[in-house]
## 1
Amino acid sequence: MKRKGILIVVSGFSGAGKGTLMKRLVSDYENYALSVSMTTRNPRPGEVSGREYFFVSREEFEKQIAENGLVEYASYCDNYYGTPKAYVEEQLEKGKDVILEIEIQGALKVKKQFPEALLLFVMPPNAQELRRRLEGRGTETKEVIDKRLKRAAEEAEGIEEYDYIVINDDLEECVRHMHSVIMAAHDTPDRCGDLIEKMRKELEAFAK
Ligand code: ADP
Ligand code: 5GP
């Protein structure tokens, strides 16, 4: 029986290491497809449109909303971020596990639309380390870093909505652990409806 792909939502405070982890999952294992979001924020040095994000104007973003081209979208620290629909549908169909690296408002919208989605929340080992990573990345001004840390406190209120917490302390260990959590999630009964149905049908035949 063909294994169906699942939607994996990865959230976590800015600087927790989500982007780093996602890149590693995609390069270390074959079953993942990483969704590239659309955003109105400016590219950071080294970011390429179509790779990290599709960088678009507010006008273009609002056109996508109007045309129902996004699975979900949200506003985060004064910018729009959203998940293009076509890629997600195409990759799930191919049996890939599709990773959406999105913030909490979007994560909850995805959970509503796709109840079988797996929601993971990435955390640093402690808050000091989060600040160190954000500052060490060197891609935001002090003002933006403060805004993101303030936002982290708000996001921490929603952690219980997620299925698993993933602690990103040692990167290598975290990548392996995250992959095992995802593999295990494939085997929960709510994600194996077709398999259960098939087994029941076969057993019914014995009873006749
Ligand atoms: P996010 O996507 O969650 O905002 P990033 O992946 O950009 O976070 O990581 C933030 C910074 O922390 C980057 O400079 C990255 O290299 C670093 N980083 C990520 N994971 C770890 C880790 N396990 N240990 C130390 N530094 C890390
Ligand atoms: P950053 O500006 O650091 O790349 O991302 C800021 C926040 O937006 C992060 O929490 C990230 O997970 C989230 N984000 C990125 N893409 C999307 C998206 O398509 N939808 C939603 N809802 N959030 C997103």
Note: Residues 7-35+96-207 form a domain with the Rossmann fold fold (CATH 3.40.50.300).
## 2
Amino acid sequence: MIVCRSAAELDLMRDAGRLVGEVLTELAALVRPGVTTADLDEAAERRILAAGAVPAFKGYHGYPATICASINDEVIHGIPSGRRVLQAGDVISLDVGASLDGYFGDSAVTLPVGPVSEEAASLLRATEESLYKAIACVRPGGRVSDIGHAVQQHVEAFGFSVVREFVGHGIGQRMHEEPQIPNYGEPGHGPRLTEGMVLAIEPMVNAGKAAVKVLADGWTAVTRDGSLSAHFEHTVAVTSGEPWILTARTVPVAAKK
Ligand code: MF3
Ligand code: CO
């Protein structure tokens, strides 16, 4: 069942989403060569707990940390570590989820560490653009597959590929709710979007081939061909008008660098 949220619930989801956006803005300002992914994880956990919220990922199916920090060929679910030191030229995806007063927010960005290759910059730009193209399809009467179609159309035009094994999702009083939202496919299929639905839309895009594998840690998904990967995510509500991006950041993360 796909749940539609009341106005009061959407207000609560806005609060959770705003916090997640603030955490990502704060983390983005810390990203630079020499910082470890454990440093970023600690900062995120501190900030979430100080807000009276709960890290959504920690303990989820045994996941050991507050954020996912996925570097270069890591697609998603990179586990923060004091031994993972950011280097100039890396790209790092930061994924943050939190629940506040029982409602969840979930958002991710991929950032350059210092100057990066032209290919990396283009991958990040195309993937972020694909997220906003997908969000532009979020309206009552639209269909879930319109979202993935928009992502796929946009990134494949650059020669990039969409990851198939992981999907976006409904979100609300649980982090993962129905429906599943693939990032590829033909438009006009799947559940119809209706006012009050809240969706976590999260394109995962590889510079090379689409195939991924999960490392022996049981979490980290990497590209099979070793190519770079990017991931952007927002929690978005369907309204009668423009979609609401609940995890919108008041300060664009790139502007803080
Ligand atoms: N944003 C991711 C998702 O929607 C993060 C989940 S990490 C996990 O699935 F550890 F919590 F699974
Ligand atoms: Co998600």
Note: Residues 57, 60, 63, 68, 77, 95, 97, 106, 108, 200, 233 surround MF3 (ligand 1) (CB under 6 Å).
## 3
Amino acid sequence: MEDFQRLREVQRGYDSVKVLLRYPAPGFKFPDGNPFPLKNLPGRRAIQGEAEPRETVRYVNKQTGEAAWNILKSTAIFDHEQKPYLVITVMQDITQLKELEQRKDMFISMASHELKTPVTSLLGFIQVLQKRFQQRDDEQSLQFLSIMDGQLKKLTKLINDLLDISKMQTGQLTYNEEYFDLNELVRETVCNLRAATRSHQLLLEDEVQAQVLGDKDRLGQVLINLITNAIKYSPQADKVMLSISIDAGEAVVRVHDFGIGIAEAHRQRIFERFYQVGDPLERTFPGLGIGLYISSEIIKRHGGKIWVESKRGDGSTFSFTVPLHDLHG
Ligand code: ADP
């Protein structure tokens, strides 16, 4: 009896495997709108031996025109000859969650646009007032204005980060590419940040010429994010070390700090949108948890990689690569 039941299970299982291999996916698309290749179906990948494959897809009901979002997760069960005899696929409808996320993105985009106009106007009037107080030699008012200016610049950076995030979500962030020496950019950025950093020494250890093709301002933004984080998350330390080297046709930039470090559990997730390490030690640091997300999107767009090596309590090293572009090669 038991054998009979097992035989039926196995037969049913083989059916699911056969069906999966025979029929095309029903009009799924990737979230970016590209058609979904059959080989990416988690069920097929599970048959190939991939552990717990998953995929987020979007599809449109041809009759109603309604779009739905699904997460597909599959597991394959293999018989004693290591042949797949059953594939279980769980489809989770996340359409409502996606709609909420899109509303939140829309809100962030509108809020950051609305905030930008008054802040720009305040910055403009601060300049006018600075000129007036300079004429009157009013040192104290000039000092207050300089504090206001500094705070407004911080606010502008936050608003710009939020605007960048919204543009990234909709693929509207533009990149102005040019050939330049990444080493020069690292030097310039370090030099500019040195002027504004009293607590830490910024040491540029190894240098090498590295001709790349990319958006200088955006890569500069990545460097600023990594260096300011290195300073922010190492309040007890007094230096941050940087280096640039070449490895396998890529420029590798490293930013090393001697700060609080990052526990293993958080190391991958800190590159996600709005992710912050939420333990009591971390809560004292201000921020929105978007700098690393923006940085990793910029690096990916340049065909590079970004990662962190760290130990809790023992500092962190953030590294990123950008492919080299030899103008003469
Ligand atoms: P923010 O610093 O605004 O919170 P980021 O996206 O720049 O956002 O960083 C995400 C999280 O990663 C931070 O909240 C922090 O917990 C962690 N982190 C980033 N850089 C470092 C660092 N150099 N040392 C320790 N933790 C870091």
Note: The mean pLDDT is 89.
